[in-house]
Amino acid sequence: MPISKQAMGLLALQALKVIEGNDVTPEPNDTLVIEQAYDNVYARLASEEIVSWSLTEDIPDLFIDPVMWLVAASRVSLFDVDPQTLNIILANSERSIGEITKRTTIDYVPFPVPSEYF
To answer: What range defines the domain where residue 67 resides?
Structure first.
């Protein structure tokens, strides 16, 4: 199910361990920082012509995780992130552009198709 920019921001803040759980309301400044990060990440992806949605539309399912990691990585320096979390965020963000590119190709199959050979 597609998610909004605000929901993406909550996921990024959870990845950064700024907030924990879905019942926590982030600080307004944290929300603003992450929403600006999403706008920047979107602009970068759009300039490379690898997005299939507009800035004002919800983020499609296939792109939630890669975009979330890119957003988190783009603002990691602004939050007090422990080294283990930093490594996880950076490792996932490095793979994200490739994942987004792969998922925008016309031949992408999101789930493995069982072989029809017997």
So the answer is: 5-104
